[in-house]
Each structure stands twice: as C-alpha cells, then as structure tokens.
From TrEMBL:
Location in the cell: Cytoplasm
Assigned EC number: 6.1.1.2
Gene this chain is encoded by: trpS
The name this protein goes by in its record: Tryptophan--tRNA ligase
Catalysed reaction equations from the record: tRNA(Trp) + L-tryptophan + ATP = L-tryptophyl-tRNA(Trp) + AMP + diphosphate + H(+)
Classification of source organism: Bacteria, Pseudomonadati, Bacteroidota, Chitinophagia, Chitinophagales
Species, as recorded: Chitinophaga qingshengii
Length: 334
C-alpha cells in the first residue's frame, strides 16, 4: 500500500536550465526511487525568490524544470510533482520552525557565507533562513530519504537538527531525514573548466552541460573541456580528467570507460579521442530528454494539470503534519 512505503522528498530551484549535476546528483535517483518509495518531488519556487527573478522568467523556469523532470523519466502517475508555493502549509510550518532556528547557526552555514561573499548587496532574511525552509519542505511530508547532490549534505544535517529540536521540545513528530544516493557517496559533478567548482545553473555556461543543449553545443563543450598535457604512467589522475571519467561512467559503456582508464594508466591516453567519444555518448543520452522536454513545454495545459493534482496530494499529507505540529505546540484553542 502506498502509505506504507517510506517517504521521499526532494526539490530543485527554478533558477536556470537543468544540467548534468542536477541530473546525476538528484534526478537519476528520483527515477529509481519512484519505483520503491512514496515520492514527493517539487519545484522550489519560493527558494528561488531570494534573487528576485522577474515574474515572466520565474514562470518559464518553473514550467521548464517540471518538463525536464518528466522528460528525464519521472512518471506523474507514480510520484507527486508540485510547486512548493502551491503548498501553503509549508509556509506556516516554516514560521513555527523559525522560532527554533538560531541566528548564529544560520550565519555559519557555508552556502549562506558563500552568498554573502558573492552578493553582499542582497543578504535578505530569506537567504539566512533558507535551510529552515528547506528542512520544512522535507519534514512536513515526514520524509526519511532525500535524494540530493553533495552540495546539499550540510542542509540535510540541519534538517535533522531541527527535527530533533522540535521533537525534544514538543514531542515526537518528525523522523530524521537522510541525504540519499544509490551509490556510496553523494555526487558532485565538477564544471568542465578544470577549476574545481561544481557545475551550476547560472555560472560558466560553456563549462556546464545543460539538458537543453543542442547536439552541437554538447560536442563543442566537451571538446573544450579541460584535460592535462598527457598521462605519465604512475602519476595520479588530475581532477579534471577524473571528472570526465566520472561523467563518462554515467553515459558511456563500461568497456569504453575501462579503455580510457587503462590508456591513462599506460600513459597513452589521447584526450581528443576521449572527448569525441564522450561527446557522442552524451548526445545520445541528452537528445531524447531535450526533445521530450520541448514537447512537454509546448503543452502547458498538461503541465498545469500535473502540478495542480500534485499540489492537492502534497497538501493532504502536509496538512496532517501541520495539524499535529500546531497541537503539540499548543496552538489548538478549540
Ligand atoms: P539546486 O536547485 O541547486 O539543485 C538541485 C539538485 O541538484 C543537485 N546538484 C548537483 N549534484 C551534483 N553535482 C552538481 N554539480 C550539482 N549541482 C546541483 C543538488 O544537490 C540538488 O539535489 N536547496 C536545494 C533545493 C531544495 C531542496 C529542498 C532539496 C529546496 N528544498 C528539500 C531537497 C529537499 C537546491 O538549491 O538545489
């Protein structure tokens, strides 16, 4: 029965085009999890408001993220897909949870410190309390597993802290959620420029492969990917090459990967060949997703229907948790 399955929650901010990091850090897990778990996947539109997007861009981005999730293999019949802002219960629990979140701990969050450094002119309260909202997204559905990339690990730790803090003060309500990946470790896909940063929606477009890239863009970006000057037998693999091998493992056959790993170890690797091969395998992987996503975006009526039905389901489960939270806190006067 659906209610007996473990609950899973994850979200993606609609702040730009989805890329390989989003796919391999998160969406790939969603697709497998939909068969085994009771999954709630949402577009984190409130979270994206910290950067004040213009309303038209916001709407286009929300619809695209939804379309790209479905095009990647999420089945709206199996999972609950919704926009965060369509579940107002989240906002109330966020208000309640903010009373248990301390300024000091929020200021110490690495993602907050990064934002303060990158956008000192826009350090708003939403940014500071971002991890509280994210925790509530998860806790309100009483999720136990949260498929995310490595960059979200710290936020998950905070979600566990908030769950514990609430449970200790008011009584047991929230399970403690864990970050989840089918492999051993959480995934971090690096950008192709070899500078060590992660692929991200809004930075360095030439070093990021998007699910919406054309075949030619994919080939071109991979041709330009950073490698090194050539393997020397016995030398450790540079990070930029290791990242390409990791990406190759995701889209190429095991034999192809092994061939290039062996060539690296033997000092005979030809990076041009490797990048051409990876380009072709990547095109095969991305082009069906891109085409399906385009077709879905041409049918906004369908996407709206999915979102609406998803929000209705997500609200039922969220409302139950919220009511229990109100009761435990003592906000039940009649
Ligand atoms: P966001 O929108 O930045 O990213 C969506 C998902 O993609 C993963 N990801 C990556 N994984 C590996 N390598 C990369 N280069 C890479 N870049 C992104 C992210 O880890 C994430 O899983 N705060 C979240 C959104 C959110 C959320 C939630 C997630 C809001 N509420 C509740 C889970 C549960 C974020 O900004 O993700």
């Amino acid at each position: 029965m659906a209610t007996e399955k473990e609950i899973v929650v994850s979200g993606i901010r609609p702040t730009g085009y989805l890329h390989l990091g989003n796919y391999f850090g998160a969406i790939r897990n969603y697709i497998r999890m939909q068969e085994e778990f009771n999954c709630y996947f949402f577009v984190a539109d409130w979270h994206s408001l910290t950067t004040h997007p213009n309303p038209k861009d916001l709407q286009a981005n929300v619809m695209r993220v939804l379309a790209e999730n479905i095009a990647s293999g999420l089945d709206p019949e199996k999972v609950t897909l919704y926009a965060q802002s369509h579940v107002p219960e989240i906002a109330e629990l966020y208000l309640l949870m903010n009373m248990l979140a301390y300024k000091g701990e929020l200021e110490r969050v690495p993602t907050f410190k990064d934002k303060v450094r990158l956008q000192p002119e826009n350090v708003n309260a939403g940014l500071l309390t971002y991890p509280v909202l994210m925790s509530v997204d998860i806790l309100i559905q009483r999720a136990v597993k949260v498929p995310v990339g490595k960059d979200q690990g710290q936020h998950l730790e905070m979600a566990r802290n908030f769950a514990q803090r609430f449970n200790e003060r008011y009584g047991n309500l929230f399970p403690e959620p864990e970050a989840f990946n089918y492999g051993d470790n959480l995934v971090r896909i690096l950008s192709l420029d070899g500078k060590g940063g992660k692929m991200s929606k809004s930075e360095n477009e030439m070093a990021t492969i998007y699910l919406s890239d054309s075949d030619e863009q994919i080939r071109q970006k991979l041709r330009k990917a950073k490698t090194d000057s050539g393997g020397v037998p016995g030398e450790p693999m540079p990070e930029s090459v290791a990242n390409l091998i990791e990406i190759m493992k995701l889209v190429s056959t095991p034999d192809t990967v092994q061939f290039y790993v062996d060539a690296f170890n033997a000092g005979s690797i030809r990076y041009g060949d490797m990048k051409t091969q990876l380009g072709e395998d990547m095109v095969k992987f991305i082009s069906p997703i891109r085409e399906k996503a385009a077709a879905l975006q041409a049918d906004p009526t369908y996407l709206r229907k999915i979102m609406k039905e998803g929000a209705e389901k997500a609200r039922v489960n969220a409302a139950q948790t919220l009511q229990q939270a109100r009761n435990l806190i003592g906000l039940n006067y009649y």
